[in-house]
Amino acid sequence: MARKPILFAVLILGVWAASLAQPRPLTKGEELKRLDFLAGAWHGKLQRYLPSVETLELEPRVTFEWGVGGVWLRGRDEIELPDGGVSPSLSQITWDPDEGAYVGSWQDNVVPGSVAFQGRWLDEKRLELDSGEFDLRGRRHRVIVTYAKVSENEFRTVIRQSQENGELKTIARGRFQRGGQVFLSR
Fold it and tell me: Which residues contact 77 (CB under 8 A, 6 or more apart)?
């Protein structure tokens, strides 16, 4: 008779210990709530600096929305190019408590595969996402994107890039306002 309570206690302790070993689901904690200012549809202007041509004035349509129970911020944007083509990109970002950093990835029609990044707040208004070095067609690249909250209805972005461990150079600057048409239908 005394064995049943002991076996029951061992079983309960085993279940409890197993639950501690399981990864906990992410929740929308304070770090993810800091990204709420990006959620929504945006329109704006982006100056893209290319070494071979004059500055391109582009008008991206951008949407950030919460997914997977509010723990992944998904970004989608499309830029209509001067030649009539469309350049799409996708991004995702969440908070990794084990890393103590924002983590995510982006994809576009220039870089094959996904590029991972880590992020951090530079101050109360500026979020920096850094790809670290990655290989693109046999050359080492690094991209840093900074989002600066101007107000609830405006943010600015700066994109910097380096190649082959060179100096980080600004390749684009943009200003976005909430609202407007988001996606081109193609």
Answer: 60, 61, 62, 63, 88, 89
pLDDT at 21: 62
- Tell me, what's the pLDDT at 10? 63
Contacts (Cβ under 8 Å, ≥6 apart) of 26: 69, 71, 94, 95
Which long-range contacts (C-beta less than 8 Å, at least 24 apart) are formed by 82-90?
82/56, 86/184, 86/186
Phi, psi of 100, rounded to the nearest 5 degrees? 65, 35
Question: Which DSSP symbol is given to 109?
Answer: S
| Tally of CB atoms within 10 A around 35 | 19
DSSP 161: E
The pTM of this model reads 0.80
Separation between Cα atoms, residue 81 and residue 57, nearest integer Å? 9
Q: Is residue 184 part of a domain?
A: no
Domains identified in the chain, total number: 1
CATH number of domain containing 128:
2.40.128.20
Average pLDDT of span 51-55:
79
Burial (CB count within 10 angstroms: exposed 0-12, middle 13-18, buried 19+), residue 183? middle
How many Å apart are CA 40 and CA 182, to the nearest integer?
10
